[in-house]
């Protein structure tokens, strides 16, 4: 695999799903979270990702299945890097598909973070390919069939959230302060003093509640808010200032380490002509459209 490329976009026919097609040779994703389910399919190479304190490896035909809100990081598993396709599916969408196609009760989720399932990996790639080629019906049909299959084979109810402790309540109050003052957050000591606790007690409580220390959580939250501002048309330089990054280069660095593409490219995909296939995808649209629609029919 030579060079790197990535496209992160949303097709208008899939309003509750973000799509990523990427090839990375030297890439490190910082510890971060998603509001959506992450359904990643490795096509080439190896991705290494750490989730809930455990390191996982996913190679060709392997899946990375990450539940909303689970902090994780990732990097290449060898000198060749990795190539993959990812669906970021909204919780409401996954819940509706689970209710219609499975007997799962409660909030659906995935217990195993890394599984070997070449057929499901190929289906995820077909969803991304159909969306990129502008095949709305095929992309929507394949996406729903693929999510249903993943839930049947690898899904289960997410465990109930633990009872709130005094430490968890302190962490939640700290999060509210950081969200409110994102552009000018207090120091750790000032935050601890404001909440009537010690710095080490606050660090411990925050890690236990959110899986990362306050400064790492704040960077992740800033990037997620930046995504919303960019989608709304705010220029990257203004976005950087609004969320508390020192300048646009600071935003670029952290955005790339969490989202996987630069903020300018992310914004162009959101504000440009949505669903328009690339030149490369357009050339293959004829026979590929037939093959994709046949796959969708078989998966229904």
TrEMBL record:
Domain of life of the organism encoding this protein: Bacteria
Domain HTH araC/xylS-type: 172-269
Disordered: region residues: 270-300
Keyword Ligase appears in the UniProt entry: no
Keyword set, alphabetical order: DNA-binding, Transcription, Transcription regulation
Alphabetical list of InterPro entries matching this protein: AraC-bd, AraC_XylS_family_regulators, Homeodomain-like_sf, HTH-like, HTH_AraC, RmlC-like_jellyroll
Feature: compositional bias, Basic and acidic residues: 286-300
A Pfam family: AraC_binding
Transcription regulation among keywords: yes
SMART domains given in the database record: HTH_ARAC (SM00342)
PROSITE patterns, alphabetized: HTH_ARAC_FAMILY_2 (PS01124)
Transmembrane segments: none
The protein, known as: Transcriptional regulator
Organism of this sequence: Streptomyces daqingensis
């Amino acid at each position: 695999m030579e060079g790197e490329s990535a496209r992160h976009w949303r097709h208008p026919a899939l309003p509750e799903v973000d799509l990523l097609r990427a090839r990375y040779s030297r890439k490190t994703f910082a510890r971060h979270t998603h509001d959506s389910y992450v359904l990643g399919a490795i096509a080439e190479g190896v991705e290494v990702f750490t989730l809930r304190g455990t390191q996982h490896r996913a190679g060709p035909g392997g899946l990375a299945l990450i539940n909303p809100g689970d902090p994780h990081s990732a990097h290449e598993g060898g000198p060749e890097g990795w190539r993959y396709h990812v669906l970021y599916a909204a919780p409401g969408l996954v819940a509706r598909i689970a209710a219609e196609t499975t007997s799962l009760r409660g909030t659906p989720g995935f217990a195993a973070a890394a599984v070997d399932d070449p057929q499901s990996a190929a289906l995820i790639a077909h969803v991304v390919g159909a969306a990129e080629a502008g095949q709305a019906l095929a992309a929507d049909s394949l996406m729903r069939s693929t999510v249903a299959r993943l839930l049947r084979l690898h899904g289960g109810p997410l465990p109930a959230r633990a009872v709130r402790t005094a430490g968890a309540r302190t962490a939640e109050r700290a999060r509210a302060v950081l969200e409110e003052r994102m552009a000018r957050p207090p120091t750790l000591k000032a935050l601890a003093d404001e909440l009537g606790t010690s710095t080490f007690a606050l660090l411990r409580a925050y890690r236990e509640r959110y899986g990362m220390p306050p400064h790492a959580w704040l960077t992740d939250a800033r990037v997620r808010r930046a995504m919303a501002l960019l989608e709304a048309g705010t220029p990257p330089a203004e976005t950087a200032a609004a969320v508390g990054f020192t300048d646009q280069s600071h935003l670029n660095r952290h955005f790339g380490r969490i989202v996987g593409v630069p903020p300018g490219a992310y914004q162009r995909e959101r504000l440009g002509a949505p669903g328009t296939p690339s030149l490369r995808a357009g050339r293959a649209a004829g026979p590929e459209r037939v093959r994709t629609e046949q796959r969708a029919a078989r998966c229904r």
